[in-house]
Structures are given as C-alpha cells and as structure tokens.
Amino acid sequence: MRTPTWTTGFLALFLASCSSLPANDARPATDLELLRLGVQELTRERQPQGPVQRVEDAKTGEGLFGIAVELEAVNWLQNDDKARVRRFVDKGTKRIELSRLPTCGWWQVKCLLARRRTQAAIDAIGPPE
Fold first, then answer.
1. What is the C-alpha to C-alpha distance for residues 89 and 124, in angstroms, rounded to an integer?
2. pTM for this one?
3. Residues 67 and 6: beta-carbon distance below 8 Å
4. Cα–Cα dist 96/128, whole Å
C-alpha cells in the first residue's frame, strides 16, 4: 500500500514542529526558591575551630597565636563564601532572566522584536558588582 505524498509531508511537518516547541522548564517561583535556599546554605556562620575559641580565653602566647591563625582562616573562608554566593546569585538571576524571556518561532516577528527589546534591557543593566 502506498502512502500519499501529502500524508508524508504532513508527518514531516508535524515532527518538525514538535522539535521546535518552547521548552520553558523552569518556573520563576521555583527558580527563586532554589536561589533562596542556595544563598542560605552558602552563608552559614563560621566559628574558629581551635582549642581556644575566643581571644579572652587565651592564657598563653601560644594560645593567642593559635586563635589569631584560626581567626585569619575563618576570615579567609568567609571571604571565599562571599565570592561563591556572588557567583551563585549571578548564575541564578541570569537563569531567571532567560526563563522569563518569551519563546518565539522564526515566523513570529512581533514576538522576536519584543524578545530583542527585553534582552537589550537586560544587557543594559549589566552584571551585578
């Protein structure tokens, strides 16, 4: 049995349209919730981990030197945490911005123009400092 040409053409057109469906997989509320949870995890408090936890508790010069080293390590770790939070928030907000852009087909001229205007506005803001 021969399949008519129009059926084959319709099937090819249908498969092509299925492969170009928009894929907005992230809802803004879900992205914002994940961003909030990530920032909470990355901004946990850090305390010195040596035998002496506070400068007032140091009884000898060795203990005072140990707490100074621990405080310096805690300061370095907190600065590293801040840098990680900045990178995480930058990536997260960029993902949210991209998920909120409209998805357009190549034939939707008005949609494409609106998307370009929105993208230009996002680019004009620039990266957070």
1. 18
2. 0.53
3. no
4. 14
Alpha helix stretches (DSSP H) within the chain: 5-19, 28-42, 61-100, 109-125
Residue 93 tokens, joined: 């907000």
Query: 39-69 pLDDT, tens per residue?
Result: 888 888 888 777 777 777 878 888 888 888 8
Alpha-carbon distance of 53 to 63, in angstroms, equals: 10
Q: Report the C-alpha gap between 109 and 122 in whole angstroms.
A: 20
Q: Which of these ranges, 20-24, 42-46, 94-98, has the smallest mean pLDDT?
A: 20-24
* Cβ(31)–Cβ(95) below 8 Å: yes
The label of the residue with tokens 């409209």 reads: 102
Give the gyration radius of the chain's Cα atoms: 27
